């Protein structure tokens, strides 16, 4: 891929990530504090762990993309409340996305090694970041339904938001 093409693709993906960020904020904020320990099955993550995973991994992806390197993420203790998770996400994610939007075409075609698992041009990881977030956000939205919490609109109306 040519640098100028990578820049166009990155601009498109960044617009999508901006939209998905707003949706993710709504889903994270819908988790009741008293349900942080809820899990659908013993092998599933607890709801608070899943919400924290979404917030931190979204930021990990963008930080790694912006820095041009995937280093093993630091373990950060999960906050006690949903509001703290959302505050972290809202404080961290937009600035990291802005850094990614400012990458040059040359930076976007540079290959990145994802923790020894696979290697792709940097621009591909913007798409992977969005897919990973959407996947786990879908999990959390089903957790919300299962625990009896209200599910916010994601792609159109929700049965809980009329």
The general outline is globular
Number of helices: 5
Query: Which CATH-level-2 architecture?
Result: Up-down Bundle
The class by helix and strand makeup works out as: mainly alpha
CATH superfamily: dinb family like domain
Distance between the termini: 45 Å
Strand order, largest beta sheet: 1-2
Largest sheet: 2 strands, antiparallel
In percent terms, what proportion of residues is strand?
under 5%
Total count of strands: 2
CATH T-level fold name: Four Helix Bundle (Hemerythrin (Met), subunit A)
Low-confidence stretches: none
User: Averaged pLDDT, please?
Assistant: 95
What is the CA-atom radius of gyration, in angstroms? Answer: 16 Å
Domains (count)? 1
Q: What order do the SSEs take from the amino end to the carboxyl end, as H and E?
A: HHHHEEH
Percent helix: 55-70%
